Amino acid sequence: MSGCEMQMEGGKQLFAQASAVSIHTGNIVNWSRLKKKCPSSPSEELQDCIRETLEKWCSQISPDLLKEPPATLECTINQDVDSISPEEREEVKVSAKLFLSDPDSSGIKDAVKKACSALAVSQLDSVIIAPPPLEDGASLSLSHLQPYWEELETLVQSQSIVAIGTSDLDKVLLEQLYQWAQVKPSSNQVNLASCCVMPPELTAFAKEYDIQLLTHNDPKELIPMLSFQEAVIASIQDNLAYEWITKWVLRYSVIVKSRGIIKSKGYLVYAKRIHY
User: Fold this and answer.
1) Is the pTM value of this prediction over 0.85?
2) Helical residues (DSSP H) of 127-186, grouped into ranges
3) Per residue in 64-77, is it b (16+ CB within 10 Å) or e — as a string?
4) In 3-state terms, what secondary structure has residue 143?
């Protein structure tokens, strides 16, 4: 068996015994420039990043890890991680968008904690929440949003986050959230794929209450369960990958304030094994 095959076997063995996996791509700004193809969508970019990160991680598995396989795998390539030094913290803005796949709101705190730890910061400047996709025919409502927003408010009060925002709310729902919330939304993302022009009533409300309107092109579900499983299979060669489901994905960017350029961008992905 070649060295590469042994490393792949080691990754397969660790995944087979783990109950959860945490993947951190590190800063993809540097190595994404070297890719031969440009991802056609945010989903494709994330799938590529997961596959590449797991392949690198497999190539660096230590024998000690195989002796005592952990229940939660931490798949990170340390040399790809650009942590923020205390000296440069004031010069950058750290923004994140959190995509939830699970109705359990407790994942929000875990995601923010992992992001702060990965970047060596005490707080994130802004976090936009994307709630779990709804069942076909269901409409997003305030009651659906409330548990996620309450969790974000707790993190603002504990100074883990400075500002919090929403995604894809129309004027009615944004107004309902604004009136109910203790910590008001500072921004609302609008998907221009479904709305090529900002609705005038939304623009007027946002202006009156100082809510920043942003645009995005993210799908409702950033990485479908099957796409995540396929990325694991491609990198680990593990057919048991179909037992894994994502719980949340956090995409972060570190922007140099004075120049408006992205210094760092990366993904944190948390998934769990389900037993049928």
Assistant:
1) yes
2) 142-157, 171-180
3) eeeeeeeeebebbb
4) helix
Using the structure block, give the residue that is written with the tokens 């803005």.
Answer: 93
Residue from 79, 73, 87 nearest 25 by CA: 79
Q: Are 70 and 22 in contact (CB under 8 A)?
A: no
Q: pLDDT tens, position by position, for the chain (276 residues)?
A: 444 555 567 788 888 888 999 999 999 987 654 455 666 789 999 999 999 999 999 888 888 888 888 899 999 988 788 899 999 999 999 999 999 998 889 899 999 999 999 999 999 999 999 999 888 778 899 999 999 999 999 999 999 999 999 999 999 999 999 999 999 999 999 987 766 678 899 999 999 999 999 999 999 889 999 999 999 988 887 677 788 999 999 999 999 999 999 999 999 999 999 865
Q: And the tokens for 158?
A: 């504990």
Contact, 214 vs 208, CB < 8 A? no
Strand partners, 245: 272
Dihedral of the CA atoms 57, 63, 67, 70 (nearest 10)? -20
**Phi-psi category of 170—alpha, beta or left, where left has phi over 0 and alpha has psi -120 to 50?**
beta
Q: For the chain, how long is the longest CA-to-CA vector?
A: 66
Q: Which two tokens stand for residue 200?
A: 């005038």
